[in-house]
Design a protein that fits this description.
This protein has helices spanning 2-20, 41-54, 56-59, 71-80, 90-98, 152-164, 179-187, 203-211, 222-230, 268-279, 282-286, 297-300, 311-319, and strands at residues 28-33, 61-66, 85-89, 112-128, 143-145, 173-175, 193-197, 214-216, 235-239, 251-263. With 324 residues, it is of the alpha/beta class. Strands 1, 2, 3, 4, 5, 6, 7, 8, 9 and 10 form a ten-stranded mixed β-sheet that branches. α2 (41-54) packs across α10. It is globular and about 60 Å long. The termini are far apart.
Length: 324
Amino acid sequence: MRIRRGALIVAVSIAWAALGSGAVRAAEFITIGTGGVTGVYFPAGGAICRLVNKDRKDHGVRCSVESTFGSVFNINAIRSGDLDLGLAQSDTQYGAVRGEAPFDKRGPYPELRSVFSLHAEPVTLMARADAKIRHINDVKGRRMNIGNPGSGTLATWQVIEQALGWKRRDLALAAEFKANQQGEALCDNKIDAFFTLVGHPSAATRETANNCPAVLVPIDGPGVEALVKTSPFYRWAIIPGGMYRGSPKDVKTFGVGATLVSSTKTKPEVIYMVVKAVFDNFDAFRDMHPALANLRKEEMVRDSLTAPLHAGAARYFREAGLIK
């Protein structure tokens, strides 16, 4: 009996020590909502889960990835309790916290929390070479894919067309193909151009450029300049020339940041372990996808985070000296 009691005391002591270091009390299963399988969100979410699962025997968190419709869907699913975390554009995150379009019907979501930011996502406009679209203004009257319902892409297009003073009827066709369908639609001449937000280099963009003559199109001008100037989540961006076939010169555009978000419903100790898994294995994380290669820790805890930091993330960042 003494031996058993002693073993129990030791076990309890070890358990409390583990809890003090950030471990979770029991097995936790979390799901990260991402995007289409051909985009960057899906492999980025997979990279996070891979690092979390690497040490799941130690901390008890088991992570899985779900392919979804994108940013808006992910935030709504987190709000409904169907997802624990999700990847979302910084502008979508901003709108959700404040209850602005496309979240105006549900109202503000003050429980939304930032975990960390990821890669930059330039607004990318690709057009058929024979459509002779050389600037975003040339899209007027043409057939363009503006993103599927539930995507951050569609939400961003709604903002851009307002900044340009356009109506939806100004497009000959406003297609709503999913991200993994738009490249094929372009090459099959079902649309003249498609609009998306994606980290570069993008495998889907490269595949489209290789499958049919296509060009990247600049997105600038007075309306866009005013949008960037007045929005805390937009910034100018350059897609380097030569990255894709048919676009030898740098292309000026603007963009948002990809962010990992959660809510106050997700336990701080779980978020702590997710952040720790990524930041303690940072070099390995950056090697998992080309779009992650240029990430910097200092920027990930600051840039594009328009919702408050989750308590679990803030704890890790303080311990690591990344925030005060």
